[in-house]
Batch of 4 targets.
Target 1
Amino acid sequence: MVGTGAIGVSWAAHFLNHGLDVVASDPAPGAEDRLRDGVAEIGADPARLTFTADAGQAAAAADLVQENAPERAEVKHALFAVLDEAARPDVVLASSSSGMLPTEIARAATRHPERVLVGHPFHPPHLVPLVEVVPGERSSEAATDAAMAFYASVGKTPIRLRRELPGHIANRLQAALWREAYSLVDRGVASVADIDTAISQGPGLRWAVLGPFANQHLSGGPGGIAHVLEHLGPPTEAWWRDLGHPVMTPELERKIIDGVDEELAGVDPAALARYRDTVVRAVLAAKKEFDT
């Protein structure tokens, strides 16, 4: 585990809770104490957790490396040069990058670029099952298959991208929603709170159970998605043409910030996060019950 910020702490707790030994590395002062406190707060036993400030030392001891450094190319390149030098040749080097291309990340891995790929979790990794496995131009099938098998073995739901794109899949879908949400605020169509309500009390409830295509299929009744496309295809195209193209101006940023402040006035952020995580756990438990 290389990099022990919020994502690294969550990953570490998840791996520990699935019986793995974790060797963590982070050069920041106080990183070990924050990591141990965070892991314990999530509910993982830190007894099988060791720490070193030396990323190469951590990689040399690893059967898989999960990297969680800042989203800056120069940081990734410097780090992957070290990891590629230290790790055994068969060890997958997976980046948690939320948007960078694995081909770009692998440029620094001159010895074994074939074992570099993206293993992008969805925050928080100890709770949300999704992992996007993204091979780059030089990633091998063996490394990709190993990553898919590893994530599945620790209770994740991995999906493999057939082509690398900035932002992968889930973040691009989120970005599409955010673009229109920001546009609606910018145009004065709705408040920040109303948009949050529109999703959390509307389609978001269905999206927590089934994805967009399966939900659209069900909305078509006996005719399924074929019926939906026949009758709502042209109107949907018209809506697409009318979607906004907001620009992140200081004025729009201020509207968003003020809207969130108004929506969450008096709400404790830590309590809100606990509420979110508790409900997500309940949804996951219900899905598991009905899926079996």
Target 2
Amino acid sequence: MSSQPSRPGPANPAAGPGSDRELRADARRNRERVLRTAQRLFATEGLGVSLDEIARRAGVGPGTVHRHFPTKEALYLAVAIDQIRKLVAEGEALATTGDPTALFTLLSAMMASGAENVAVKSALVAAEFDLRTAAPDVAADLTRRVADLLDRAQAAGAVRPDLTVGEVMALVAGAFAAIRHAGAETSRERSAHIARLILDGLRPR
């Protein structure tokens, strides 16, 4: 007795409307939108902006923001980690160029990012969050990218030979403090000028 052939199911059931995959993709897009909006508002309007206002500006419901980021500190941390991931990606792209001065490009980007997010970083410090502890893999990835570009720059004679990656990372952190001390967080021109002054110290004598 032959069996009745079963009817074929949908070719890709996971991709249908309302599927888990679609919902997950939608949730990721909403999270990205919230992160971008929060980063911009924190930089332009300060940390006093509420989660509900961030939701309104991002075009999502308040519940979406609170679901992804139950506290303001959680959102601060996510914004900071997101910026580091972007810098890691930039470092990876620069590593493929073969440019011996690419280190300066990455460090300039790091200092610009730090200047834009100095309020967020200060809030994390105040809340006793350490990015190296909270996101050790991401922080280590960025340090490795800087180390690789530093090695290449030193081999080409574009950077002084006595410089270590630890000293470079310390100088970047010092740049954030210098920019804040000068009150230059909201001025890209002034913060970039301070960054250039610091980066000039890395060049061979």
Target 3
Amino acid sequence: MFSKKSISTFLQAQVAAFLGGITDYGLMILLTEVFKLHFTFSILISGTIGAIVNFSINRFWVFKNQSGYSSRINSQLFKFALVVLGSISLKSFGTLILQKSFQIDYRIGRLITDSFVSYGFNYPLIKNWVFRAKEKQNVIESN
């Protein structure tokens, strides 16, 4: 059902997401607790930094799309930025809903929201849209 390559890619993508997520989450706590920003603004800033970490790891290790073509990276960056905007929006909104409606601490609400957004939104779009072209190109070239 699943190939070793697809399982390996999924696990590598989870490592990339974890490292980007740790950066994101830690920075969110720092900005909220130390610099007293509202958590929705902290999520915006930390999500952007975490996304840069995640994109870099995905591009150069997970999906190995460092082809050197500037138009290629521009396309990937644009697509990735759209995914990140959606992801940050979903995380901010989800965390806010959990905090306002259910009085769940923003740190816990963020973890709950992240789990849904990461597996249900980020991974499918990053794998099948942002970094998809290289895989299809390799299949075409091998035929």
Target 4
Amino acid sequence: MKNNSLEIPKLNFDANGSLVIVASETSSKHDFDFFQGKSIIQNRKLKKRFANCTEWIEFPSTQEMYKILNGIGNIDNFLATFNGEPFEGMTVRLFNPATKLWSIYWSDSTTGVLDQPVIGSFEDNVGHFFSEDTFEGRNVIQVFRWDARDKKKPIWSQAMSDDKGKTWEWNWFMFMTKTN
């Protein structure tokens, strides 16, 4: 299932074909302030990626985010249960004042390893964060999309492209409700 149903900015590549990420003019260390505190989340995750799958798995989770490093970073803990087993994820987000870009790192209780960061910024309360990666042996571009236009009900989503951003497969949505 590939589509372009959620708007993603046009991607730019350098002469070597590597993805180039430039911050929006309004990017700031306050971009994630809306997310500070606790949230309950309804997750909708595609059962299998890049397999023309139309089956979604839905499950609840909770998340709590707090600021670090005098506000140029934040950490959150994601708690869920998969197949009756507790699962914990952790995100570290760091804002570089020189480039005005955010780097977002993820790790979880399954791997214990920080993933390669997705990098980007917000514009008009919608953030796009990209990385070039490998998924099951294929080169992909991954995007995290944060829609914070409703600060009390932000939406996070993730997609991958295996054709340099011409088409995208959305594979995970988190519908959040702030509890404090």
